[in-house]
Structures are given as C-alpha cells and as structure tokens.
Specification:
With 162 residues, the protein is α/β, with parallel strands linked by helices. It has 5 helices and 6 strands. The chain has a single domain, classed as Lumazine/riboflavin synthase (Rossmann fold), CATH 3.40.50.960. The mean pLDDT is 96. Bound molecules: ligand DLZ.
C-alpha cells in the first residue's frame, strides 16, 4: 500500500465550521515548508465555512516552541481547537529526536490538561524532499489534514457537551 495523500478525504464527512473559532500556531523553522502547511490549513478551514476573523494565526521560532505558543492561544482566546504546524527534519545530531519528543509530549499534555483539541500538524521527516512532498507536493498537504482533524474534533466536543 502506498503512502496516503494527506489532502484526499471525503468532504461530506467534515462538519460545518461556520460557528467555530480556531487558533493556528506555526513554527518558522523550515518556513518554506511550514508556511505551505499554514496555507493549506487556512484554505481548508475556510472551505468548510470558517471565517477569516475566526482563524487566529500566531508564529513561533521553532517546533519546540509550538507547545507554549498553543497554550498562549488557548489561555488568551476562546477557541474550539488549536492547530500546531511545524516541520522537524533529521540532521546529523540527536537534536531531531529531542525536539520531536518535546513537541509530541507537549501537545499531548495540552490536549488532556485543557480538554480542548490541539492538533499535531508537525512533519517529522528524514530529509527536505519528504517534507516538501507533504507540504503541498505529491503527497498532499499535512495542513489540510490538520484542519480537517481540528473541525472533526471540535464538532465531536460540541456534540458530546450538549
Ligand atoms: C534547533 C533546531 C533544529 C536543529 N532543527 C529544527 C527543525 O528541524 N525544525 C524545527 O521546527 N526547529 C528546529 N530547531 C529549533 C527548535 O525547535 C527550537 O526553536 C530551538 O531549539 C530553540 O528552543
């Protein structure tokens, strides 16, 4: 089985996001990749009804800072979900592993502590090409996938809380 295209999904399975408010925190490290993720996420949120004023975008320096940036958004705004976008590319040192562990555990912790969806839109790749392939390239855009996940999780919470 081939690698899944991140932008292929059934649009009918995605709830209407017209009444939802989203935070998007994006890492500027590897920005040629992460800004494409941002573009994909914002376009997909809008495609499903989210309005410009209900999409709050904030930038952080690197993926390690995504956790705190996402927490700031959750603390200072009333959001239905926070999408975290980043790209960590394997280098010559173990730095990759530590950043990936930090951001993965950080975002997991936020989900549970805030009882709010924090979406993991972070590419963790062996090289630049794998990242480009998943940021609007031949394997679609992880930003699209993250946006769809955010809408679905926000809708799930609304549905259960009623
Ligand atoms: C330092 C660093 C390195 C080497 N590589 C990446 C990377 O591939 N992707 C990424 O998002 N950030 C990287 N960083 C920066 C760290 O995330 C963080 O910003 C710094 O360690 C400062 O805390």
């Amino acid at each position: 089985m081939g690698t899944k295209n991140l932008s292929v999904y059934n649009p009918d399975s995605v709830p209407d996001a017209g009444e939802m408010r989203f935070g998007v925190v994006v890492s500027d490290w590897n920005k040629e990749v992460t800004w494409s993720l941002l573009d994909g996420a914002v376009k997909t949120l809008k495609k499903h009804g989210a309005t410009e004023k209900n999409i709050i975008v904030k930038h952080v320096p690197g993926s390690f800072e995504l956790t705190l940036g996402a927490q700031f958004l959750a603390e200072y705004d009333d959001l239905d979900a926070v999408i975290c976008l980043g790209c960590v590319i394997q280098g010559e040192t173990p730095h990759f592993t530590y950043i990936c562990q930090g951001v993965t555990q950080g975002i997991t912790q936020l989900n549970l502590e805030y009882n709010l969806p924090f979406i993991f839109g972070v590419l963790t790749t062996n090289n630049q090409q794998q990242a480009a392939d998943r940021a609007g390239g031949i394997l679609g855009n992880k930003g699209d996938e993250a946006a769809v996940t955010a809408i679905k999780m926000a809708a799930l919470q609304r549905d259960i809380e009623k």
